[in-house]
Amino acid sequence: MNSLRPTNLLFQSAETTNRHFEEVMPSGSWHGHPAFLVGGGPSLRGFDFARLRGRRSIGVNIAFYAFDPTIIFSMDTRCLNWILNGTYDRGSFPGLRDKFKKTAAYKVWLLTYSASLAEDIFIVPVHKSYQDGLGSFTLRYRDGLGHGNNSGYAALNLAVLLGANPIYLLGYDCNRPPDASHWHAGHPVPQNPKHLDSFIPRFETAAAATKKAGIRVVNLNPASALRCFEFGTLEEALND
Questions:
Q1: Could you give the count of Cα atoms lying within 13 Å of 223 in the half-sphere of its Cβ?
Q2: Contact 156/217 with Cβ under 8 angstroms?
Q3: Are 33 and 54 spatial neighbours (Cβ–Cβ below 8 Å)?
Q4: Measured between alpha carbons, how far is residue 14 from residues 117, 141, 209 in Å?
Q5: Residue 128 carries which DSSP code?
Q6: CA-CA distance, 227 to 182, in Å (whole number)?
Q7: Whole-number Å distance between alpha carbons of 52 and 9
Q8: Within 10 Å of residue 136's Cβ, how many Cβ atoms?
C-alpha cells in the first residue's frame, strides 16, 4: 500500500496536470450520508459484494474488480501501473484493465509527489508532504489528505472530507491468516504481518480525530486487529 514511485513511463516526473477531485465532488458532498469503504483484507473472501449496490462507496486499490464503487481510490501508483500495463490481467484478474477503462466510477489517486498520470485520473494532494501526511488526519480539503502509509487510511480521510457519517469499514483487517494477505489472490506484493502491524497506530490517530469531530466510524469485521473503532454488523449498516 505504500506509495513507491514507479519507473514506468506511465508516470513521468512533471508538474501535476490532473484535475483535483474537489472540482467534481466538493467538500461535504456526502454530508450526513453513510458510506462504505472496501479494503483488501482477507475477511472479505466469499463476501457478496452485490449487497453494496447503490450505496455510496469507496473501493480501495482493485476492490472495483468485485463491485462498482462510487470512487476507486488509491495512494499506490504501483497499483495504477499494474492495472494499466496488464499485470493484474495476466494474473488472477482477467479483464481488470478493460473494466478500469470503462468504469463510471471516479478514479482518484492521492499524490505524495509531483507526477503526470492518465488524464482520466482525479487527484487529491497529500497533507504538506509525504512525511507530514504520514501521521496526519485532516478535516478540510485545503489541508490535503493524511495517509498513514496505506490507501485504506487515506480513503477514510477522503470519506470524512466528503462529509460521510457514519462510515463503515469492510476488509480493514490489519491481520492475515497464513494462507492469504488479501481477499483476492494474485497481489504482486503480498502484505506481511509487520507491515500490517505498523498501520494500527496510524488508525488510532484517525479514530481519535473522527471521534472528536463527531463522525461515527464502524468496523464491520469483529475479528479485525483494528480495535480503535466501534464494531457493527453489515445488516445494521445496510439498514442505516
A1: 8
A2: yes
A3: no
A4: 10, 23, 34
A5: S
A6: 19
A7: 35
A8: 21
Q: What is the dihedral of CA 43, 44, 48, 50, to 10 degrees?
A: 140
Cα(35)–Cα(45) distance, integer angstroms: 21
Distance CA 187, CA 180 (A): 10
DSSP 135: T
Type of residue at 128: K
Q: Would the pLDDT of 87 be above 50? A: yes
d(CA 166, CA 237): 9
Query: Whole-angstrom Cα distance, residue 182 to residue 60?
Result: 12
* Predicted TM-score of the model (pTM): 0.89
**Average pLDDT, rounded, for the chain:** 87
Can you read off the three cell numbers belonging to residue 237? Answer: 449498516
What phi and psi values does residue 112 have, to the nearest 5 degrees?
A: -105, 5
The Cα 64–Cα 184 span in angstroms is: 12
pLDDT tens digits, 88-103? 888 788 899 999 999 9
Which grid cell is 42?
A: 482477507
